[in-house]
Design goal:
InterPro entries: GLE1, GLE1-like_sf. This protein is an all-alpha fold and about 650 residues long. It is built from 18 helices and six strands. Among the domains are: about 35 residues; about 300 residues, Serine Threonine Protein Phosphatase 5, Tetratricopeptide repeat.
Length: about 650
């Protein structure tokens, strides 16, 4: 709190005593100074102006009017005391007096007449804050002897105290206001801090979710990569196992081929020995016959009549058999395989007939319907191939029905369903090839029976062809029946026969080129052997042209992928030898020739056939690699082919 300067409203020189008040005095200093002045005055002991009589207590003036008058107005009023029984009424009277003062604009109040008291010995201080009795006694003693100057000082001191109190109250009010404002600010700051904390917590939660999502994505990517690596490793292992199995199978087949060659050589030696033995026996019989003729001259006439039918019929029989043997065009190995398969299949059918005639209670019709429905529903999807193959294996392994009977039913139904072409034939044929390979890996007898049914339905799956000869066949219808024409009231037309021939050859080509997770017992090696036997043994005509075109369309892509240059040599030989011979023999085979030439010249063997790849994946994703062929490679192969020998009577062989 700052210092307040007190300015006395009285003359600065009283009775020769100068007054120089110090604004920094406190009340104690003022009292001590007044005491010293009183002592000086009383010590003089005279009634001169310097030694006045002791001050008489004058009535207390109204201190509230002291600062409002002019400098020269010093008008004292008597001390007035009002005593009322009701303090509240007295407070109301005071308020009314204050209001009346404010309305009239005068300095004096209108007071009710009361008794006046003179307090000569008692000084009543207006200060309610002091409780010190000694200080009150000192003030009483001073007031008893106080004059004008002392009263002025007292009034100024009192006013100063009131101002200090008012200032203190104002400062307290200001501090309270400031405290309220600070409290409001603190409250708003706390609210803002809580809001910021909530916002920060929400942001942290979002960041945590974001980081967790990132971590989950990274973990998922990592697990996906690990799974992909495991799948790749498993595919590599499967491919290695399959390659090892293929090598072992090749070794086994090579060994079997060598054994077959040794057996054939042994058979030739035995045949030569048999021929020599037969020649010796014939010579002995001839000699015996000559001797018998000499001995039977007497009965020559009678014997001539008896021997005439036998001498004329035996040569005719031998001639017919010899002529029929010349009519069949096929390689020796192909005919042996056909004979063995048909013989095995005939034995199986005889055994099945005995089982059926034994009175078994098995519902064979229901089994046959199940097989037909399952085969008819085969389509070019992975899941369908897997489910239909599993279904057929379950039917074959059903103990309620003999397996041999079900195998024969399956072979016949496959041929009967796929011998008629449809709009989606290629796709279903490739899918059927996968199903057959899978089923034959579980039941090996299925493949042999199916090949026998192929040979019975189409002689070009052997491959073999029967030439027409008037000496060999009584009528043309007999010849057509021999090569596979069907008779339903009347003989079918050539176009119908060629359509059925093409469908069966497409199914056969799709079967031999199938490369799946399991081993194909009649795979590309057999397809390559079929192509060599076909070109070496069969003559070019409309039937063989249709069979060759259908087979190349389905199996050419896979054969080229495996045999590459050797296969292109075969195609060049076909365009150089087979096609010109066909054009010279059958001028009406133009459409067949165009089809074969278009396949070779357009290099369709470099493209996957329609339906070759199953729509999702093959039975094994690694079973059939991606094509790696291009135009430049094919032209290089053609360039190397020009260096190849062009002998027309070359025999085609196949390599494993």
């Amino acid at each position: 709190m700052g210092m307040i300067k007190l300015e006395l409203r009285c003359p600065k020189n009283v009775n020769g005593i100068s007054i120089d008040p110090n604004p920094s005095w406190n009340f104690n200093d003022l009292m001590s100074e007044l005491s010293s002045l009183e002592n000086k005055l009383y010590n003089n002991g005279s009634d001169s102006p310097l030694n006045p009589k002791p001050f008489v207590k004058s009535p207390a003036r109204d201190f509230r009017k002291i600062g409002r008058r002019g400098k020269n107005e010093v008008k004292a009023k008597a001390f007035v005391m009002r005593v009322d029984d009701d303090d509240d009424k007295m407070d109301e009277d005071d308020d009314e007096m204050d209001e009346s003062d404010g309305k009239d604009g005068t300095e004096a109040r209108s007071l009710v007449p009361v008794s006046r008291f003179t307090c000569n010995d008692i000084y009543l201080s207006e200060s309610d804050d002091s409780d010190n009795e000694e200080m009150q006694q000192m003030q009483v003693s001073v007031m008893d002897k106080m004059g004008v100057v002392e009263g002025a000082f007292l009034e100024l001191t009192h006013e100063h105290q009131l101002g200090v109190k008012e200032e203190i109250r104002n400062q307290l009010a200001a501090l309270e206001t400031q405290l309220v404002v600070e409290k409001e600010k603190s409250t708003s700051a706390l609210v803002q801090v809580e809001k910021n904390t909530d916002a920060r917590r929400q942001m942290d939660r979002k960041l945590d979710l974001h980081y967790q999502r990132k971590i989950a994505e990274a973990l998922d990517n990592h697990l996906t990569a690990i799974q992909r690596d495991h799948e790749h490793i498993s595919q590599l292992e499967e491919r290695k196992i399959r390659d090892d199995a293929a090598v072992e199978e090749a070794k086994r087949k090579e060994k079997a081929l060598q054994e077959e060659k040794l057996r054939q050589q042994k058979d030739k030696e035995e045949q030569e020995a048999a021929k020599l033995e037969a020649a010796k026996k014939a010579e002995e019989e001839r000699k015996t016959a000559q001797e018998a003729e000499k001995l039977a001259k007497e009965a020559a006439d009678k014997l001539d009549k008896e021997k005439a039918p036998s001498t004329t019929s035996a040569p005719n029989v031998r001639l017919e058999v010899k002529s029929a043997g010349k009519l069949v065009r096929a390689t020796e190995n192909a005919l042996k395989l056909e004979e063995r398969r048909l013989q095995t299949y005939k034995e199986l059918e005889d055994r099945n007939q005995q089982l059926i005639n034994s009175g078994s209670h098995t519902d064979y019709n229901r089994v046959e319907r199940d097989i037909k429905r399952t085969i008819s529903q085969i389509s070019g999807t992975v899941e369908n191939v897997r489910s239909k193959g599993t279904k057929l294996v379950e039917i074959l392994n059903n103990p309620a029905c003999p397996q041999s009977v079900v195998v024969a039913m399956l072979a016949k139904k496959v041929i009967s369903i796929y011998e008629a072409p449809n709009t989606n034939f290629n796709s279903s044929a490739f899918a059927c090839g996968h199903v057959i390979v899978y089923v034959s890996s579980q039941v090996p007898a299925v493949m042999d029976c199916l090949l026998a049914e192929f040979h019975k339905a189409c002689i070009y799956t052997v491959p073999k062809h029967i030439m027409y000869s008037k000496a060999g066949f009584e009528t043309e219808e007999a010849y057509y029946k021999a090569i596979g024409y069907r008779e339903d009231g009347k003989l079918e037309t050539t176009d119908c026969y060629l359509e059925r021939l093409e469908s069966l050859m497409k199914l056969y080509g799709a079967l031999v080129q199938t490369d799946a997770r399991v081993q194909n017992k009649h795979g590309l090696e057999e397809g390559w052997a079929w192509l060599a036997r076909f070109l070496n043994g069969l003559p070019p005509n409309r039937y063989t042209a249709v069979a060759l075109g259908a087979f190349l369309e389905m199996a050419g892509f896979a054969l080229h992928r495996k045999y590459k240059n050797q296969f292109t040599k075969i195609l060049n030989a076909i365009s150089r030898e087979f096609v010109p011979t066909l054009r010279a023999r059958d001028p009406n085979a133009g459409s067949k020739i165009t089809r074969i030439l278009d396949y070779i010249e357009s290099q369709k063997f470099l493209q996957e056939p329609v339906g070759w790849r199953l729509r999702e994946a093959l039975l094994s994703n690694s079973s059939i690699p991606e094509p790696e062929h291009n135009q430049q490679q094919y032209h290089q192969q053609q360039y190397h082919q020009q260096q190849y020998n062009h002998a027309p009577n070359r025999r085609y062989t196949y390599r494993r």
